[in-house]
Amino acid sequence: MIPPGRFSFISLKRGYKGDEPASFKTVSRYFREAVFALFMPVIILGGIYAGIFTPTESAAVAVVYGLVVGVYIYREISWKDVSKIVLKSAKSTALVMYLMVTAEVLTYVLVSEQIPQTIAASILNVSTNAVVVQLIMVFILLVVGTFLNNSAAMVLLAPIFYPIIMSLGIDPLFFGIIMVISLAIGHNTPPVGLCLFIACDIGNLKLESLVKEIVPLVAALIVTVVVLNFFPDVILFLPRMMR
């Protein structure tokens, strides 16, 4: 039995139990069985970073690779299953596209009403302290990330925030990373939470049950991004070394 000290708080609370520690022989056997599946991230990331594929093309290559491995190596998929898989993928894609379209409509409304510009103009009226302004912007990004997809939010807010951060002497690289992290957190937060809907669709879960489980994780991410605003060197030390 795995010692109780290795369990997380949630595992202890719910009484989850572990099995006996796996032997080296067992780990080796499972690794050999999983080696073809583990090779998929190598194809995706390796192809992107090597400049062979774009992210979209790497996804297509990964699908073909997964189909070949599933049908001919693991033999867990038959050609009869392919039509069902394609149909389920089409439904998942339709869900994502619907959310993105509605987000674009919301973006149009926000731009038409000049809401982002109004918010940006109000930020400097609240404070001229760089850290305080960063925290206000993070709050805005967390909220916006729950309604808009990342690309729309970046196009909408980056030109508005950029003059503000430059006037306060905030490193644009640092704030760009904070912006991406904040929007990503918003993608996992209701009411829209694009990633939540995709996860629910894949796992056949209700949104309410998933939201309840991720609250501690989202809270931890928010605390992390807030703390990073006080310690920019945590983000910038590597870029500074590369310069």
Give an overview in words.
It contains 11 helices and no strands. With 243 residues, the protein is mostly helical. Helix 4 packs antiparallel against helix 9 and helix 6 packs parallel to helix 8.
| Approximate strand percentage | under 5%
**What structural category characterises the helix and strand content?**
mainly alpha
Give the termini distance in whole angstroms: 50 Å
Number of strands: 0
Q: Which value, in Å, is the CA radius of gyration?
A: 22 Å
Shape: globular
What order do the helices and strands follow?
Answer: HHHHHHHHHHH
Biggest sheet, in brief?
A: none
Unreliable parts: 1-7
Mean pLDDT: 81
Number of helices: 11
Helicity level: over 70%
Concise synopsis of the structure shown:
This protein is mainly α. The chain is built from eleven helices and no strands.
Protein traits:
243 residues, mainly alpha, 11 helices, 78% helix, globular, disordered N terminus
Architecture blueprint of SSEs:
Elements (H helix, E strand, L loop, with lengths): L8 H6 L9 H26 L5 H19 L5 H34 L2 H12 L3 H16 L4 H18 L4 H15 L7 H10 L3 H24 L2 H10 L1
